[in-house]
């Protein structure tokens, strides 16, 4: 009886080993379903682009990884996306770097008034910066890619012709770029982007500091008359796409490599997409009677001088935290010069 039991166990073990080695490796992997939080509404081009990003990942991984997009902040409030992704409440999250104040100090170099010319240039810089510095502040998530809207200009409710016309005006600005407005002689006013249209129409503010895409995306062109094109003060609304670290580590090396390749492709898509959105926004604005005023060389020189204290403050703040802010700023400025 004992001999039969041993033989039976050996046979069962042999069958188990045969079956386990015969099953394709990918069939042993448990299918992973990722929940992606985006801030834009369902019909926005970026929501659709992230949906396609998920479909491309599913295809590249043979269906082992699927992505479901949750639009319009239904999965997480925008200010909590980064923390919720790190905690696993969100599997993949995308939002503004500025919505995590103090959390990503070195990367705040991206939102400085560096004189951005386009979203494509800005997006290329953002990803080049990340690859160069690999800032530890991102260590609790897995960065997919960075991207962002640029150039960022001042739009005014009434016609303006120069920076001097901004003096004393109340300009809506986020906290992270309020000094741009202040240093140009205007008064920064903080309010949610969703309240800006109403604030302009009712005269609560006289203008706003926004990237060009907002002219159409938030219909701001309906309540402003002028866009002051002043590149020395142009900033970037920098954004991230990140994955929960535990989820990333649970993905096979082969599938990780496939996703990284897709991420590179989508960083390029987003960069070029921002340019396309800006061009459409400009046409939309012109159709609404908005005038684009390119400031004089004198105004450009003035603006460049007034931006220097902001850049110096960034370096001072990061150095105080033991971070190479001076190196990050130099890298960013040289990148933009070499890639106009």
Describe this structure in words.
The protein has 12 helices and 10 strands. The N and C termini lie far apart (83 Å). It has a single domain, classed as D-Maltodextrin-Binding Protein, domain 2, CATH 3.40.190. The protein has 340 residues and is an alpha/beta fold. Strands 1, 2, 3, 4, 5, 6, 7, 8, 9 and 10 form a 10-stranded mixed sheet that branches. The protein is globular and about 60 Å long. About 6% of the residues have low confidence. Helix 5 packs across helix 12.
Give the domain tally.
1
Any idea what the shape is?
globular
Percent in helix: 40-55%
Series of H and E elements: HHEHEHEHEEHEHEHEEHHEHH
Fraction of residues in β-strands: 15-25%
Provide a concise account of the structure shown:
With 340 residues, this protein is of the alpha/beta class. The chain is 47% helix and 18% strand. Strands 1, 2, 3, 4, 5, 6, 7, 8, 9 and 10 form a ten-stranded mixed β-sheet that branches.
Labels describing this entry:
340 residues; alpha/beta; D-Maltodextrin-Binding Protein, domain 2; 10-stranded mixed sheet; 12 helices; globular
Topology, element by element:
Elements: H1 2-22, H2 25-28, E1 32-37, H3 45-60, E2 65-70, H4 81-87, E3 92-96, H5 119-133, E4 141-156, E5 170-172, H6 178-183, E6 187-189, H7 193-201, E7 207-211, H8 214-217, E8 226-229, E9 235-244, H9 245-249, H10 253-287, E10 291-294, H11 297-320, H12 325-338
Parallel strand pairs: 1-2, 1-3, 5-6, 5-7, 8-10
Antiparallel strand pairs: 3-9, 4-7, 4-8, 4-9
Helix pairs in contact: 3-10, 5-10, 5-12
């Amino acid at each position: 009886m004992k001999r039969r039991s041993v033989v039976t166990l050996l046979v069962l073990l042999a069958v188990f080993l045969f079956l386990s080695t015969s099953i394709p490796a990918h069939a042993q992997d448990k299918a992973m379903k990722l929940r992606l939080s985006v801030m834009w509404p369902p019909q926005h081009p970026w929501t659709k682009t992230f949906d396609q990003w998920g479909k491309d990942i599913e295809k590249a991984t043979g269906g082992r990884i699927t992505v479901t997009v949750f639009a319009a902040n239904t999965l997480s409030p925008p200010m909590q996306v980064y923390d919720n992704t790190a905690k696993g409440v969100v599997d993949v999250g995308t939002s503004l770097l500025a919505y995590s104040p103090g959390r990503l100090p070195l990367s705040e170099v991206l939102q400085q008034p560096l004189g951005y010319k386009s979203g494509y240039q800005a997006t290329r810089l953002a990803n080049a910066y990340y690859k160069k510095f690999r800032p530890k502040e991102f260590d609790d998530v897995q960065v997919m890619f960075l991207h962002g809207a640029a150039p960022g200009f001042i739009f005014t409710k009434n016609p303006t012709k120069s920076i001097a016309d901004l003096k004393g005006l109340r300009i809506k600005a986020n906290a992270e770029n309020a000094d741009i407005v202040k240093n140009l002689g205007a008064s920064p006013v903080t309010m949610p982007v969703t309240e800006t249209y109403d604030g302009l129409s009712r005269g609560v503010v006289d203008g706003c500091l926004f990237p060009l895409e907002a002219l159409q995306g938030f219909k701001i062109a309906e309540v402003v008359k002028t866009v002051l094109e002043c590149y020395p003060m142009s900033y970037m609304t920098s954004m991230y796409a990140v994955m929960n670290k535990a989820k990333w580590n649970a993905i096979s090396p082969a599938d990780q490599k496939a996703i990284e390749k897709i991420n590179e492709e989508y960083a390029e898509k987003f960069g070029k997409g921002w340019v396309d959105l800006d061009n459409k926004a400009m046409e939309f604005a012109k159709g609404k009677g908005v005038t684009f005023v390119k400031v004089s060389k004198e105004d450009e020189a003035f603006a460049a001088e007034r931006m220097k204290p902001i850049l110096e403050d960034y370096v001072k703040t990061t150095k105080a935290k033991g971070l190479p802010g001076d190196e990050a700023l130099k890298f960013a400025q040289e990148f933009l010069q070499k890639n106009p």
